[in-house]
Write a structure and sequence with these properties.
Layout (H helix, E strand, L loop, with lengths): L15 H15 L30 H4 L19 H12 L6 H7 L17 H4 L10 H5 L14 H13 L67 E3 L2 E3 L6 H9 L4 H58 E4 L3 E4 L4 E5 L5 E6 L10 E2 L11 E5 L3 E8 L7 E9 L7 E5 L7 E7 L11 E5 L10 E11 L3 E5 L5 E5 L6 E6 L15 E8 L3 H8 L10 H12 L2 E3 L10 H14 L6 E4 L20 H11 L2 E6 L2 E3 L3 H8 L5 E2 L9 E4 L2 E6 L5 H18 L3 E4 L11 E2 L9 H10 L5 E4 L11 E3 L7 H5 L1 H10 L5 E2 L31 H11 L6 E2 L9 H32 L4 E2 L18 E3 L3 E4 L8 E6 L3 E4 L5 E3 L2 E7 L6 E5 L7
Parallel strand pairs: 19-20, 19-31, 20-21, 21-26, 26-28, 28-29, 29-30
Antiparallel strand pairs: 1-2, 3-4, 4-5, 5-6, 6-11, 7-8, 8-9, 9-10, 10-18, 11-17, 12-14, 13-16, 14-15, 15-18, 16-17, 22-25, 23-27, 24-25, 32-33, 33-34, 34-39, 35-38, 36-37, 36-39
Length: 976
């Protein structure tokens, strides 16, 4: 559709005659109701004609569904009263067919319009009609109906005019009123003051019924089709309301034309413009008000949804809170499922697990008053099954928090079991001891429930040193009470669980300390693993230490231990001892040290006297060795061979462990190493302690022995059905009682097995190692494991291994096997073994380097001896003092330098001496390179003297056959 000069729109379809005829019909319809002239809105050009289909069928009133509008548009009636001049102007417009546009009239200099009407030419001139006449105005009610405040009403018509227009309508009853909808306002609704508003899509048409001529019909109130925002005099600039652009075409074309036709002077034009411009803010305010209402509804809806969500979430959390109660700040327990969560200071999970696994599912009850403890523990009872006590434990430092968990079972058929998650995202676990698979960290192990006691690493689940202490890299530790009959399972059937169980049995925990099995332990948390570990370690070991004890410690660090090789009594003679020590002296570069004689210095184990046939002049030999600078040590055992002269005496005096549920005169027998049958001294019997002290004191006085090495064996060397004078908690407690009875009276420089830190200067010996590359590879994990559980002073086996036995080919191995000393190992294995042993706290030999009669081996041994004396020994002495003060081990895992460095957590083929040195030996045959990791700091390469930055891997680090990789820590202010 195009704009004509007159300012109104023409249809884009149909002939010219049809168009003109159509508009005449429109004008005639506009006059049928006198001074109540409704206005019909026009539609934008883009919508085309408002016809259905072909555009010729008008919209029927029935189909439009009544009127539409907005009741708010109807305001005070008095504001809608037309003046006489306005009525004349409106009448002139109705009688005019064509009029110039507003721009044309402005260019003419005066506002005059020539009106042409082909059908009924008017007899009066528009200018005359526009003049004000002193005529009586119609009543307000008659003229206000159907008019809006922002629209200009049409004047009323006379009876003659109405009859003429009615006749024209009858002649052309098929004429239709053009109704055009604007897309921009198609959803708007307007209403007259008398007509209710009904939302409809199409605009309604106007219909008039005139049954009798000359008779004035009652007013038929119609709805105005114009919206309040179409009252502008001319197309206005584009307006943007609520991100919607409203163009001038959105305004009513008929309103524009009528307004233009109603202007007769510049003053009236200005006043009309002023009136229309005042309506624009009202329209904007209305749209804003509507927008605010819409936003308010959206806000209220969103607020409602949020409230519903919060109520639902609060309900869920409340239910969870009822089930998972918080205890002691950082402990959460879900009572029904018994799910446990230990939290850190930020609320993150440190430890998760389940208490009382797979035993009962019923809801617990609060314990009865008579079952509560005096310490304020929280108590829950599962009816007729078990009670759980929880409490907080006071610690030495506020940054470490500990919580106790104690199960008391109420039936003999229930074993309390608590399991904790050890998946990859749960950190690394350390401690306990060395499991059978030589697994380090401990979370790499996999085995079913086994009693937590010492054993032979080749035959039982645990090695020769254990402690009920487990540490996690996230800064959490578990300490199990010594009285608990403890069974442990780790990752059995790949279940990623670390489980503790209280269970009585027929050997390890046969002595019931309570009517039913119990499980008592503590869980401690700290800011990090290193801080926590340092806070839980046994502190000062100086208590009761004498000057002689301190001298023994230093001598063991500085000087080697010479273990005379002897697989039988025939091999251990005075001559063998003398010749061996002569070879040590002849080497020239090896320091003199401790000469250790194994159990074959007696004729039978348990004699506690020298074999007179083989050591007729041993007293003189010992004096010679003392003058040369050696120290003499004897290995003793708490076992009495049935062939020993002391066996009958100990049986008659009831000094031995006896059979359970029998008379004390029947000793309980066992096997130990080469002994087929032996009794065990009852160390809990005071008479036995006195008897043994007398025997050992005579040896010291007669031979001048410097110290003893206690060979306890392990828990499985105790008789199966043992019974002591005083009840033992478990077989391993025998070692603790023995040490407590003798450590103040004897110089003990080493023990073969332990479950607690022995009093210095006693070093804990590593378990016997097979003379093979596999045996070499087990030493570092064992050292690291023993260091973590709190054994600061450890003594490795001899260079080259303790025995040679194809353990990998054995279907089953027993702890009482007699293990012969190994033959001379292969050269490369011996060199690599010696290179690693150089940096360990105690350097122990059976085979001397000179036995190879190889210059290369000799030169390597000399160089390593110099490194030890110059570099290693000062570090060992420095960190031995720290070990005495803080309980920290001398040989440490790398994470003790930096527990936040993930790479340090799992390395098991490197170790550090305190914080001052890192050693990375070659552990595989024919290797001359390896991967090396250095923690933070600056490190000096021990091979070439170069400086290397830490916190990184050194890939393919070259290590020649005659060298060992070690790195010395430089001061923190060192710069390249």
């Amino acid at each position: 559709m195009s704009h004509t000069p007159s300012g109104y729109h023409r249809p884009s379809r149909g002939s010219k005659d049809g168009h003109e005829e159509h508009f005449d019909t429109v004008h005639e319809h506009l006059l049928l109701e006198g001074d109540k002239i409704p206005f019909v809105d026009s539609e934008d050009e883009s919508t085309g004609d408002s016809t259905d289909g072909g555009g010729n069928e008008p919209l029927d009133e029935d189909r439009t569904g009544g009127t539409s509008g907005n009741a708010s548009d109807c305001e005070d009636d008095e504001d809608d009263v037309m003046t006489e001049s306005q009525e004349n102007l409106a009448m002139a417009y109705v009688n005019r067919y064509r009029m110039p546009s507003l721009a044309e009239r402005r260019n003419q200099g005066k506002l005059t319009v020539t009106i042409e009407n082909e059908r009924n030419p008017p007899e009066r001139v528009l200018a005359e009609e526009a003049k004000d006449k002193h005529t009586e105005l119609k009543s307000i009610q008659d003229r206000a109906v159907g008019l809006r405040r922002n629209s200009i009403s049409m004047p009323s018509l006379t009876n003659d005019d109405l009859q003429a227009l009615h006749q024209a309508r009858v002649d052309e009853e098929e004429s239709k009123i053009l109704v055009i909808e604007s897309p921009s306002i198609s959803t708007e609704i307007t209403a007259s003051p008398d007509t209710p508003s009904t939302p409809v899509s199409p605009k309604p048409m106007l219909h008039y019924d005139d049954d009798s001529e000359g008779e004035e019909k009652p007013v038929n109130k119609r709805t105005l089709f114009r919206s309040s925002r179409r009252g502008s005099i001319a197309p206005l600039p584009a307006l943007r309301l609520n991100d919607k652009e409203m163009m001038a075409n959105d305004f009513d074309t008929q309103s524009v034309v009528s307004n233009q036709a109603s202007i007769t002077s510049v003053n009236s034009l200005a006043s009309l413009l002023k009136e229309k411009m005042q309506n624009v803010p009202a329209m904007i305010r209305k749209k804003r008000r509507e927008t605010k209402d819409y936003k308010l509804r959206v806000f209220v809806g969103m607020l409602f949804l949020i409230i519903v969500f919060l109520i639902g979430y609060a309900n869920v959390m409340y239910q969870q809170k009822l089930l998972a109660r918080s205890y002691f700040e950082n402990v959460k327990l879900q009572k029904t499922t018994r799910a446990l969560r230990i939290l850190d200071a930020k609320g993150a999970d440190l430890l998760t697990g389940v208490l009382g696994v797979a035993s009962f599912i019923e809801k617990p009850y609060n314990c009865l008053a008579e079952d509560l403890r005096d310490d304020g523990s929280v108590c829950y009872e599962w009816n007729s099954m078990a009670r759980l006590y929880m409490n907080s434990v006071k610690t030495a430092t506020p940054e470490i928090k500990c919580y106790s968990f104690s199960w008391e079972t109420l039936t003999d058929n229930y074993y309390p079991t608590d399991c904790f998650d050890i998946g990859e995202d749960r950190g690394f676990w350390y401690g306990g001891g060395l499991p059978r698979g030589i697994d380090y960290p401990l979370s790499k192990a996999s085995f079913d429930f086994a009693p937590f006691i010492t054993g032979d690493i080749n035959a039982q689940q645990w090695g020769n040193a254990v402690k009920r202490y487990f540490l996690n890299s996230k800064g959490i530790a578990i300490r199990v009470d010594d009285r608990t009959p403890l069974y442990v399972s780790i990752n059995h059937n790949a279940n990623n669980k670390f489980c503790l169980q209280g269970r009585n049995d027929n050997f390890a925990f046969v002595n019931r300390l309570s009517q039913y099995p119990e499980l008592n332990y503590e869980i401690c948390t700290g800011p990090d693993m290193k801080t926590l570990h340092n806070g839980l370690l046994q502190k000062s070991l100086w208590d009761g230490l004498t000057e002689n004890d301190n001298a023994i410690i230093k001598s063991l660090l500085r000087e080697p231990v010479w273990q005379i090789p002897a697989s039988s009594q025939e091999e251990l003679t005075e001559t063998a001892i003398y010749n061996y020590t002569e070879n040590v002296i002849a080497s020239g570069y090896l320091r003199l040290g401790h000469v250790l004689l194994n159990e074959f210095w007696q004729k039978h184990i348990g004699d506690f006297t020298l074999d007179a046939d083989r050591f007729a002049t041993l007293e003189d030999t010992v004096n010679i060795l003392h003058r040369r600078g050696f120290r003499i040590s004897l290995s003793i055992q708490p076992f009495i061979s049935t062939e020993s002269v002391n066996f009958l005496e100990t049986v008659s005096k009831k000094l031995l462990i006896y059979e359970r549920e029998s008379e004390r005169s029947i000793p309980a027998l066992t096997r130990f190493k080469s002994l087929a049958s032996a009794g065990v001294i009852d160390i809990t019997n005071n008479a036995t302690v006195t008897w043994l002290k007398d025997k050992l004191q005579k040896i010291v006085e007669n031979l001048g022995i410097d110290s003893f090495y206690l060979d306890f064996g392990n828990a499985f060397n105790i008789p199966r059905y043992y019974q002591c004078s005083s009840m033992l908690e478990n077989p391993d407690q025998y070692k603790n009682v023995f040490m407590s009875r003798f450590e103040g009276n004897l110089n003990i420089f080493g023990v073969s097995s332990a479950v607690s830190v022995p009093r210095p200067p006693a070093f804990v010996s590593l378990p016997p190692v097979n003379s093979s590359w596999c045996g070499l590879q087990t030493i570092i994990p064992t050292l690291l494991s023993y260091g973590v559980i709190g054994f600061p002073f450890v003594m490795p086996g001899p260079v080259g291994g303790d025995f040679l036995l194809p353990t990998e080919k054995l279907h089953k191995m027993y702890s009482f096997y007699s293990l012969a000393s190994p033959p001379l190992p292969e050269v490369e294995l011996y060199i690599r073994w010696l290179q690693m042993a150089t940096f360990l706290p105690v350097l122990r030999f059976t085979h001397l380097p000179s036995e190879y009669k190889n210059d290369t081996v000799t030169e390597i041994a000399k160089e390593l001896s110099a490194i030890r004396q110059k570099t290693v020994v000062p570090l060992l002495e420095k960190y031995s003092s720290e070990a005495m003060d803080e309980g920290l081990p001398i040989i440490r895992p790398l994470w003790m330098m930096d527990s936040t460095d993930v790479n340090c957590l799992y390395i098991d083929d490197e170790f550090s001496i305190g914080d001052g040195m890192i050693v990375a030996p070659i552990l595989y045959r024919a290797d001359i390179s390896r991967e090396v990791y250095l923690p933070h700091g600056v490190w000096k390469d021990g091979i070439d003297g170069s400086l290397r930055k830490g916190n990184r891997w050194i890939h393919n680090y070259h290590v020649p056959r005659d060298k060992v990789a070690y790195f010395v820590k430089m001061p923190d202010n060192t710069r390249f």
